[in-house]
Amino acid sequence: MGNGVREGQVDFKRQDVEPVLSTHLPPEGNQEKKKVLNSLMSGALAGAVAKTAVAPLDRTKIMFQGESPYRLIYRTYLNEGFWSLWRGNSATMVRVIPYAAIQFCAHEEYKQLLGSYYGFQGKALTPFPRFIAGSLAGTTAAMLTYPLDMVRARMAVTPKEMYSNIVHVFIRISREEGLKTLYRGFTPTILGVIPYAGLSFFTYETLKKLHADHSGKLQPSPPERLLFGACAGLIGQSASYPLDVVRRRMQTAGVMGHTYSSILLTMQEIIREEGLIRGLYKGLSMNWVKGPIAVGISFTTFDLTQILLRKLQHSTNGER
């Protein structure tokens, strides 16, 4: 009675206040789910936009690595038309969308985990954890989506008549070559992903941090993001390129008339038949065009989509 509140009013006030607090302050689990969903959506869009933009160069690169002569590329233009260079892009999308979604989402989660472990929560990671977060993200995505990468490689180097669609590739490979074939080239893929994803994310995050430190701006502009992503792609793909060649050779061995039993034997045969530079770095010049464009678009699309989704969520929450 000494607090000036009449009996009977206390419970009403509590009933009014508590629902308001529970409605306007969402639980941490809800926020975390939204964050993960945002990362998945942004990553999926980033992968789709980037890969569609460079699909013709991507197919040409795979054909080149797969030992098809350059005149085959020219005949493709003449016989099948310009749009034939996007053949296999549907298979690429089926693989890239989940791959990019998982990779970007995993990178955000690994950054958070490593930040907590090393005591950098809420701050930029130091170089080594930054590299580890990227490597773990790439490895996680590659492990979960590898058979789709195998299918894409097969569709890119074979004539239309051989495989009618993605499901047909799975069925025919499983029946004629065994399920193990769907994971052929898996080891060089993982060994290549570690430096590729690690260096790509490391370079991009480092350049953004250096930009913020020197310019005083919290966020780089879209053209600056594209430039940072291009640098990241150039460094990452150059470092992992020989393993990328080995991976493609092992994936397409069944239809190209070769048998590759291991990474080292594949490398030895490529070097013996074609030389070190012409063999293990075949198509690298094309990759220096394709890679920076794809990675630049991918990182930029992811960042801008994340920013847009956060703004939409804040505006939605503000209207409630």
From TrEMBL:
Show the catalytic activity.
Answer: 3'-dephospho-CoA(in) + ADP(out) = 3'-dephospho-CoA(out) + ADP(in); dADP(in) + ADP(out) = dADP(out) + ADP(in); AMP(in) + ADP(out) = AMP(out) + ADP(in); ADP(out) + CoA(in) = ADP(in) + CoA(out)
Q: What would be one Pfam family of this protein?
A: Mito_carr
Signal sequence extent: none
Q: Name one GO cellular component term.
A: mitochondrial inner membrane
Q: Where found? A: Mitochondrion inner membrane
Solcar repeat ranges per the UniProt record: 34-113, 125-210, 220-308
Has the keyword Iron been applied to this entry? no
Would the keyword RNA-binding turn up in this protein's UniProt record? no
GO biological-process terms attached to the record? transmembrane transport
Topological type in the membrane: Multi-pass membrane protein
Q: What is its main location?
A: mitochondrion
What are the protein's UniProt keywords? Membrane, Mitochondrion, Mitochondrion inner membrane, Repeat, Transmembrane, Transmembrane helix, Transport
Q: Can you tell me which family this protein belongs to?
A: Belongs to the mitochondrial carrier (TC 2.A.29) family.
Function field: Mitochondrial carrier mediating the transport of coenzyme A (CoA) in mitochondria in exchange for intramitochondrial (deoxy)adenine nucleotides and adenosine 3',5'-diphosphate.
Q: What is this protein called?
A: Mitochondrial coenzyme A transporter SLC25A42
Native organism: Ardeotis kori
